[in-house]
Write a structure and sequence with these properties.
The complex is a heterodimer. By secondary structure, chain A is an alpha/beta fold. Chain A folds into 2 domains: 7-55 and 90-202, Rossmann fold (3-Layer(aba) Sandwich), CATH 3.40.50.300; 253-335, Helicase, Ruva Protein, domain 3 (Orthogonal Bundle), CATH 1.10.8.80. Chain A contains 14 helices and 11 strands. In chain A, the strands form 4 sheets. In chain A, strands 4-7-10-1-11 form a 5-stranded parallel sheet. A two-stranded antiparallel sheet of chain A has the order 2-3. In chain A, strands 5-6 form a two-stranded antiparallel ribbon. In chain A, strand 8 and strand 9 form a beta hairpin. In chain A, helix 9 crosses helix 10, helix 11 (257-270) packs parallel to helix 13 and helix 11 packs across helix 14 (324-335). Chain B is an alpha/beta fold. Chain B has 4 domains: 17-180, P-loop containing nucleotide triphosphate hydrolases (Rossmann fold, 3-Layer(aba) Sandwich); 181-307, no CATH class; 320-377, no CATH class; 382-570, Rossmann fold (3-Layer(aba) Sandwich), CATH 3.40.50.410. Chain B is built from 24 helices and 15 strands. Chain B has helices at 17-27, 42-53, 69-73, 78-84, 93-96, 112-123, 145-148, 168-177, 185-197, 203-220, 227-238, 257-263, 268-285, 288-296, 337-344, 348-353, 357-360, 392-397, 399-415, 440-448, 458-474, 499-515, 531-539, 552-564, and strands at residues 33-37, 60-63, 74-76, 89-91, 101-104, 129-134, 153-156, 320-326, 372-377, 382-389, 419-426, 429-437, 478-485, 520-524, 543-546. In chain B, the strands form 4 sheets. In chain B, strands 12-11-10-13-14-15 form a 6-stranded mixed sheet, sandwiched between helices. Chain B has a 5-stranded parallel sheet with strand order 2-5-6-1-7. In chain B, strand 13, helix 22 and strand 14 (520-524) form a beta-alpha-beta unit. In chain B, helix 11 (227-238) packs parallel to helix 13 (268-285), helix 19 packs across helix 24 (552-564) and helix 22 packs parallel to helix 23 (531-539). The chains are: A alpha/beta, B alpha/beta.
């Protein structure tokens, strides 16, 4: 397999990296939206993250990579199988390119089999392949509306329901949605915006020293990928260990009432729509606490996650271009007065 | 011409920039691709032959912009499958051009969707060398930004580019030397500093520049990257991406001087000349208009190109499904399997009759005449083009109210996910303040910054709006013109003052608009209804809305009614 640029070798972009790690620890956050310019390492980071994550157990031969340990979430074929053989596979990262046809996203009738021997076989699409992994959409704000509609439904229910071409089936499709785009080029539908748990802004690095470091590392990687990855292997292993430990710890992380009420307070102060903001904020704070190895969520954890969890949830006037980040920062400063 | 007047020991013959870019691309294919500006002609053909000749044996595929997803990515070849009675897979053009050249004709018309597929293929290190032939005029027509960011070079082909192309063996030898070339730390520092000076945003630019410099060194037969290589890489990679003049009064966030002073072996004088050279090259390559804009103000820090055109150009092969009809399979149509099988079903017994039992067993016999292709209904994208009279008379009258009205209309556009564009006319002519975009915050900013004053070049305003509308219609969008004026035209088409001529020209422009059958709305911003504005609306076959009686909300309803019915019927 072609070596991937190591996650730990990415220069700067801490907020993006942290958000991705948290999404990997807590898949129920359902994703990260990365806003920023081209050439800021968004795609590199997404692909690198998958390489950091440990391989997962999957049922051999299953088109949906069912988890043998999770009997409740098996696809129909796996449920009916008499015995399931487990194999280990890397966490899938599936690209959903702009302009992908509905057939390719949802899956379609397998033409080959249908025409050759008249069998009605489902050919799984990108959603099936992304199950238990990451679905990466570059330029998500330019995605066509009918594909967005499909995604919204699947991302909410964790299940892909196919009712087309005489087929009627459903299969699990739970994935971490990762979108990236440049907000200057188009707005994102509010419904889709809401599906992303966290939202981060990435900026092109402007300090020369940092850009030099980016170029230097990339160059070293291009020239000798194996040696470069080798040099970063300890850091990658450490991060992997930390993510695994955090996943294990996550269910035990406690949240004090005081934290709950502070989270509610900040959501009220910002006027976020619905309760999803608070839920996401708390989930993210717990994941962050777990990542830090703490047993309980502290104010600092909450504060750290406020911006990525709420930045994109402010009720907004489409014509108001005052940065949402500034508003959040102001509210944070007001609510977290100690 | 090449900057190499004092190269290494075995100086190759001088090459023109465009040829040099081709050579570097052949030496290091990870440079990914090149954007070639210029219209088709013998010069471009010669260049293309030269570049592809550098790597004999490499596949050369040509891709039209209208390529289908099947053809791009590969898939089941239905016609062949049926004929053969077994699955026949077609390879996609991406797979076919693996480790070879993929020539993109008319890249400026490429849809964002296809560009995204290409970008994914490039990121997946498929070894494709992309040659994007860009025949675009001006900044409005450019290949999608996602693709441009991933192409190392941009060159212009001129008649002077008839070069003696080097032998393929020399390229192969340089490619072998490539990995031996050391990259001193100061080289990347220099390239990053240069990029910062020119306001280059994407870090990909510097990565490409470094690869280009290394390839140039390898081509010279040298062991390390020298000043000349850096200059070449900067000229071919960084300059086309420049968004500001290197001599900009505003210093880059971190001055490059210290990093260079400590590491650079060369004297300061030489340093200066290189920077000067690059400044000149920047001036030569930057589009004229951009330079003006930069000079006039410390304006937009980057060009926003191709923004918002994404997914707009779509035919009937995408969108929501809307039934099926009999038809032929072509590259752009999609088979509706169920309907095809349904059509074939009644004939099965008849068709089996003439077949041997083992061939016909368990098979549906489908023939080409059974094919049903899917139809899709796609909502055409609307774009509202606002042409605003910002002249002195209008400013006195009700520019502020007109702005308010536009803001309201913009909010509507947001709800309906329409694009907007904003043209202002005042003084000598009309300016496109806001190229078509979905980003309404930008529209609002452009509007807020709109100054008032000066005479009224009404004809120029209408013509500018018309030209933009026609271009957008060509791109598959549905334009809607909204013209706000008080009708006090006093600058004619020729830019000369004079009320009578200006009025005549404006009417003529309005008639031209009417002839194009574009849905339009003319908003009279004068304090009293102006007969002339109504006349204008009549000539444009547009709806006439006097602002004195139209509160902003009514205006917004008027636009909706017009846009909603998609045509002049509502006018």
């Amino acid at each position: 397999m072609k070596p991937v640029f190591p996650f730990t070798a990415i220069v700067g972009q801490d907020e993006m990296r942290d958000a991705l790690v948290i999404a990997a620890i807590e898949p129920r956050l359902s994703g990260v939206l990365i806003f920023g310019d081209r050439g800021t390492g968004k795609s590199t980071a997404v692909r690198a993250l998958a390489a950091v994550l440990p391989d997962m157990a999957a049922v051999a031969g299953c088109a949906y990579n069912c988890d043998p340990a999770d009997a409740g979430a098996l696809c129909d074929a796996c449920r009916q199988a008499e015995q399931r053989i487990t194999r280990r596979i890397p966490v899938p990262v599936v690209d959903l390119p702009l302009g992908a046809s509905e057939d390719r996203v949802v899956g379609a009738l397998n033409l080959e089999r249908a025409l050759a021997d008249g069998a009605k076989i489902f050919e799984p699409g990108l959603l099936a392949r992304a199950h238990r992994g990451f679905l990466y959409i570059d330029e998500v704000n330019l995605l066509e509306d009918h594909i967005v509609d499909l995604l919204l439904d699947v991302a909410a229910s964790g299940e892909n329901v196919v009712e087309r071409e005489g087929m009627s089936l459903r299969h699990p499709a739970r994935f971490v949605l990762i979108g990236s785009g440049n907000p200057e080029e188009g707005e994102l539908r509010p419904q889709l915006l809401d599906r992303f748990g966290l939202c981060v802004d990435v900026q092109t690095p402007v300090e020369i020293a940092r850009r030099v470091e980016v170029v230097r590392r990339r160059d070293a990687f291009d020239r000798d990928p194996a040696a470069f990855c080798e040099a970063y292997a300890p850091a990658e292993a450490a991060l992997r260990g930390r993510i695994l430990a955090a996943r294990k710890k996550l269910p035990e992380v406690t949240v004090a009432d005081e934290i709950l009420s502070r989270a509610a307070e900040i959501c009220v102060a910002l006027g976020t729509d619905g309760l999803r903001g608070e839920l996401t904020l708390l989930r993210a704070a717990r994941a962050w606490a777990a990542y830090e190895g703490e047993a309980a969520v502290s104010m600092a954890h909450l504060r750290r996650m406020t911006e990525p969890a709420l930045r994109h949830r402010l009720r907004r006037d489409p014509l108001d271009d005052s940065l949402a980040g500034t508003r959040v920062a102001r509210a944070v400063a007001e609510v977290f007065v100690e | 011409m090449s900057p190499f007047d004092s190269g290494g020991s075995s100086a190759p013959p001088p090459l023109s920039d465009s040829a040099f870019a081709g050579v570097l691309l052949a030496v290091d294919p990870t440079l990914t691709g090149i954007r070639v500006l210029g219209w088709s002609g013998p010069d471009r053909d010669r260049w293309l032959r030269g570049v592809t000749g550098l790597r004999p044996g490499a596949a050369i595929r040509k891709m039209p912009v209208s390529i289908s997803e099947d053809r791009l990515l590969g898939g089941l070849d239905l016609t062949a499958t049926l004929a053969a009675g077994r699955a026949v897979h077609g390879t996609g053009i991406l797979a076919e051009s693996h480790d070879g050249f993929l020539v993109l004709a008319m890249a400026e018309r490429l849809s964002a969707a296809i560009a995204a597929q290409l970008a994914a293929a490039i990121d997946g290190a498929s070894g494709i060398t992309l040659i994007a032939l860009d025949e675009g005029i001006g900044q409005d027509e450019a290949p999608p930004a996602a693709l441009l960011d991933r192409l190392a070079f941009t060159v212009k082909i001129g008649a002077a580019d008839a070069t003696a192309w080097p032998a393929a063996a020399a390229i192969a030898a340089a490619a072998r030397r490539l990995h031996r070339i050391d990259c001193l730390p100061d080289v990347s520092e220099r390239l990053c500093a240069l990029a910062a000076m020119m306001g280059v945003r994407s870090v990909r630019a510097e990565i490409f520049a470094l690869r280009a410099a290394r390839a140039a060194a390898a081509w010279r037969g040298a062991d390390s990257i020298e000043e000349a290589d850096i200059a070449l890489a900067a000229r071919l990679v960084l300059v086309p991406r420049a968004t500001q003049m290197p001599s900009s009064a505003e210093p880059p966030p971190e001055p490059p001087a210290p990093a260079e002073a400590e590491s650079q072996a060369e004297g300061e004088t030489q340093e200066q000349t290189l920077e000067d050279k690059i400044a000149e090259a920047t001036a030569a390559v930057l589009p004229e208009k951009l330079l003006e804009a930069l000079a006039a103000q410390l304006g937009p820090r980057r060009m926003i190109r191709g923004a918002g055109t994404a997914g707009a150009a779509a035919g009937a092969e995408r969108g929501r499904p809307a039934g099926a009809r009999p038809g032929h399979l072509s590259g752009r149509t999609r088979l509706s399997v169920l309907d095809t099988i349904r059509a074939a079903a009644p004939w099965q017994r008849l068709r089996r009759a003439g077949m041997s039992p083992e061939r016909s067993q368990n098979r549906i016999i489908v023939r080409a005449e059974d094919f049903h292709i899917r139809r899709f209904k796609e909502q055409p994208r609307r774009i509202a083009i606002f042409a605003v009279d910002a002249s002195g008379s209008s400013a006195v009258n009700r520019l502020a109210e007109a702005k308010g009205a536009i803001l309201l209309l913009l909010a509507d556009c947001y709800v309906q996910r329409d694009e907007v564009a904003l043209i202002a006319f005042r003084g000598a002519g009309a300016d496109l303040l806001l190229p078509p975009t979905h980003a309404l915050a930008r529209a609002r900013r452009a509007l807020a910054a709109l100054p008032g004053g000066g005479p009224t070049p009404l004809a120029a305003g209408i013509n500018a709006a018309l030209a933009l509308a026609i271009m957008q219609r060509r791109a598959g969008k549905q334009p809607l013109l909204v013209i706000l004026t008080d009708g006090g035209a006093n600058i004619g088409q020729d830019g000369k003052a004079g009320r009578a001529a200006a009025g005549r020209d404006a009417l003529a422009a309005a008639k031209a608009c009417g002839a194009q059958n574009l849905p339009a709305l003319v908003v009279d911003t004068a304090p009293r209804r102006q007969k002339f504005v109504a006349e204008l609306a009549g000539a444009m076959a547009a709806r006439y809305v006097p602002l004195p009686y139209a509160d902003a909300a009514r205006l917004s309803r008027a636009v909706q009614a017009n846009g909603g019915s998609h045509g002049r019927a509502a006018a």
